[in-house]
Amino acid sequence: MTVHTRTALVIGGGVAGPVVATALRRAGVEATVYEAYDSAADGVGGGLSIAPNGQDALDAIGLGDVVREVGRPLAGTVLRSWKGAVLGEISVPPGLPELRFVWRAELSRGLRDAAAGHGVRTVYGKRLERIEQDGERVTAHFADGTSASADVLVGADGIRSTVRRLIDPAAPRPEYAGLLGFAAPVADTGMASTGRRLNISYGRRASCGYLVYDDSSGGWFMNLPHREPMTVAQARAVGTDQWLRTLREAVADDRSAAPELLRRTDPADLLITGPLETLSTVPTWSRGRVVLVGDAVHATSPSAGQGASLAFESAVQLARCLRDLPYAEAFVAYEGLRRERVERIIAAAARTNRNKANASARIVRDVLLPITMRIAMKMLRPGKMTWQFDHHIDWDAPVPGTVPVRAGGA
Questions:
Q1: pLDDT digits (tens, 9 = 90+) for 253-297
Q2: Fewest beta carbons within 10 Å, which of 191, 331, 333, 349?
Q3: Residue 23 contacts by C-beta under 8 Å, 6 or more apart in sequence?
């Protein structure tokens, strides 16, 4: 096997960065992660689910056990109205692994440690300022005056990606979805187990998702409609006590588990995850020796339950392409393998967010969703609903030299 790319700089040490670097090392590329913050952000982020397709991608590069060790199994989701009535249930398609609910901080720490075990080095305090390219190398220049060079540079630096802006100043910016996110673990919910099912209550003024385990511990997340966008820093400046009061007021009239969960939440445990944002179609996925991966190029909102899983898929596919093709051909093949799929999932999540942020849509949804779901289950072709989850990447399969890029659809 001819190795066309031998070294890589990975910008961003969150969830995607360690996975990209590990996949590249497995493909024979020496990859180093450069993180802007001075230390690992172990206390950042709320909860998220890793879908079967995300677990499959991690298994392809030997990281699947990380999710199984830190995650709790999820057999599906129960959708409820603000009155507590069941609107519908969604289960993992038969024959596929259950989803896994993880706290982002635990997942990030586990992936970082596992990547280090595969020989990946992470360098902290390296905030990217500019990129230079020539015919042979790409060089990253950091705010502390240092620089690093390699054959390629991978931007895994999230939805507010500096790399995306540097390769295309006209690239789209994140779009606020009209919602602020909050989450918290609860040591004792005082409730019965939810039976490995995430319950989502579409409240009158906020939506709440929650899990309760067999020992009565659990956790929740909430999406609170908020007209004006706030940065994470601005939201955190409000303070946990004030936000808990606001959240309790928002669910006070709901006949759901949300009021009790909030009552039992310690302000010290509240995670303020900030604005829910999406990213519209990114025209430029790569330029020269620089390429984007994960939320930097295809961010979807938490409503999709696929953000991290899609990032893992893209990391593995990018590594396969760089293993088998010269970098310019590899980037074209990578985009061809990924664009249609990720844009289709992003479009579906955007529709969900509009429903959450619109009160009149809630009324229509509560009335029509049970009927709509029954009709959909009868009319959809076999296997149609599994397309997001049943996505396998064959690591050993060679990547063809030309993979056409196609725009996604709903």
A1: 999 999 999 999 999 999 999 998 888 789 999 999 999 999 999
A2: 191
A3: 60, 61, 315, 316, 318, 319
When pLDDT is averaged across residues 54-77 and rounded to a whole number, the result is: 95
The tokens describing 274, both together, are 């900030």
Task: Tell the CATH topology of 7-71+104-174+281-358+382-386.
Answer: FAD/NAD(P)-binding domain (3.50.50)
| DSSP track, 359-381 | HHHHHHHHHHHHHHHHHHHHHSP
Same fold, 7-71+104-174+281-358+382-386 and 176-277: no
Domain regions of the chain by residue span: 7-71+104-174+281-358+382-386, 176-277
Contact 277, 17 (CB under 8 A): no
* CATH code for the part of the protein at 176-277: 3.30.9.30
Nearest to 23 by CA among 369, 311, 338, 407: 311
3-state class of 53 per DSSP?
helix
Helix then strand count (H, E) for the chain reads 12, 19
User: 335: which 2 tokens?
Assistant: 């985009």
Distance of alpha carbon 81 from the chain centroid: 26
